[in-house]
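R.M. (postdoc): so does anyone remember the format we settled on? I'll just put the structure tokens first.
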């Protein structure tokens, strides 16, 4: 029954029942973790053949000896495969180390200390600068901007991407906005994929010359349905919009092969790549080409990556289904929560009634179920409505996942009765 139409007495009765359920949950002594979007061991197993690659054949198809120093751009064969998957011409794509997050960090620090490509003033010298942060969003993005004192401005997420009207207004009014976080495909945590129209608007809208969109396409191929969306040729679109240097395209194989030992990518205009490579060359002579070669040999081509992602999908779909079924069965009727049914990516975003998220997370913690920390999906960990909880179904085994989610549902219901009773 809908909790919102219940009298205080009815709510108290339900709350008593839920408290008993909760006490049984606590007595079960669970130790379950739904916090981070890590691949499960059986997903990692899918790439085990890579462990014996490249074998004795340590040259790439152009004869480069991958054991040696050099080649700051990364292997051409790998850039061809992932260029197709990220919608970036191979000539505009660098293949780098094991973390795209590290590239995003370096792009930010280089902007602060050196200024962006073609700019005569560093970000740091322009006083306090700001980034637009579509929210809910990815906590580690927000951690980078917070660490360097860059002010974060939350922007609402709509079903087809960030609210472009809000972005346009903010950018027109404030030239100190220098960046924007964006996860264009199967966004973390909402699962939203940006539409072509939203993308075009983001690329066209007036902004400071040194404004950059971090187009973090971390989930470009991570589909839970038949096929991932065709990537938009965002660099070409940016050039057509008259802002060729506005976009940094990011990606990695962290959730394709091995999360700790993948390869990462940066796609950008030639001017941006020259700028980045110049500063990067101070920190490294070149990336781990043996790991890159391993990836080339393992996949062969872009279809090899797609076929591999279909195997991930077979493992992940039952887990997402299990979570969604439990949410539906336990929470739909009471109308105290809504959730996403994503077509890809790594998360389900759960919204509870305003004021109930922190309490739900606390109740779950005290019952041995770790949920992503309160507020994580917002800048400064401030969830303005205290309502968003990011669920990460990928890592646990399915039986554990079901137990954890059933427990989470009990916590949501109990927290909701508390909030509703307080407001009566
Ligand atoms: N971007 C997003 C949106 C992510 O969700 C993640 C991983 N959870 C990353 C980047 C991290 O990527 P990497 O392992 O390449 O640093």
């Amino acid at each position: 029954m809908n909790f919102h139409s219940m009298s205080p007495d009815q709510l108290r009765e339900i709350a008593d029942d839920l408290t008993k359920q909760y006490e049984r949950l606590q007595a079960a002594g669970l130790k379950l973790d739904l916090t981070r979007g890590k691949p499960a061991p059986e997903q990692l197993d899918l790439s085990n053949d890579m462990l014996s690659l490249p074998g004795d054949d340590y040259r790439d198809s152009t004869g480069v000896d991958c054991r040696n120093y050099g080649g700051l751009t990364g292997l051409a064969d790998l850039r061809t495969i992932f260029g197709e998957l990220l919608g970036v011409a191979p000539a505009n794509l660098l293949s780098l180390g094991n973390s795209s997050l590290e590239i995003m960090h370096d792009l930010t620090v280089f902007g602060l200390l050196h200024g962006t490509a073609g700019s005569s003033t560093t970000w740091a010298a322009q006083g306090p600068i700001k980034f637009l942060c579509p929210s809910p969003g990815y906590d580690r993005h927000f951690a980078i901007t917070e660490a360097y004192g860059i002010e974060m401005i939350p922007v609402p997420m709509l079903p087809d991407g960030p609210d472009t009207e809000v972005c346009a207004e903010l950018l027109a009014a404030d030239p100190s906005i220098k960046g924007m976080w964006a996860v264009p495909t199967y966004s973390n945590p909402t699962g939203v994929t940006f539409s072509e129209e939203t993308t075009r608007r983001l690329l066209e809208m007036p902004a400071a010359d040194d404004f950059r969109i971090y187009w973090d396409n971390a989930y470009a191929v991570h589909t839970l349905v038949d096929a991932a969306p065709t990537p938009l040729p965002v660099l070409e679109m940016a050039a057509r919009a008259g802002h060729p240097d506005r976009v940094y395209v990011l990606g990695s194989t962290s959730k394709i092969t091995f999360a700790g030992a993948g390869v990462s990518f940066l796609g950008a205009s030639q001017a941006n790549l020259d700028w980045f490579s110049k500063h990067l060359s101070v920190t490294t002579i070149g990336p781990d080409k043996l790991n890159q070669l391993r990836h080339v040999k393992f996949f062969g081509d872009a279809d090899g990556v797609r076929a591999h992602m279909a195997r991930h999908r077979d493992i992940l779909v039952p887990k997402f289904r299990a979570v969604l079924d439990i949410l539906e069965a336990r929470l739909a009727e009471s109308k105290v929560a809504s959730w996403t049914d994503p077509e890809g990516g790594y998360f389900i975003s759960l919204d509870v009634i305003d004021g109930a998220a922190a309490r739900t997370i606390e109740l779950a913690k005290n019952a041995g179920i770790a949920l992503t920390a309160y507020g994580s999906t917002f800048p400064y960990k401030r969830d303005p409505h205290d309502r968003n909880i990011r669920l990460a179904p990928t890592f646990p085994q399915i039986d554990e996942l079901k137990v954890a989610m059933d427990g989470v549902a009990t916590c949501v219901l109990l927290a909701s009765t508390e909030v509703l009773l307080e407001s009566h």
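R.M.: ...and that's the designed sequence above, right after the tokens. Also worth knowing: Residues 150 and 277 are 24 Å apart (CA to CA). The chain is about 40% helix and 15% strand.
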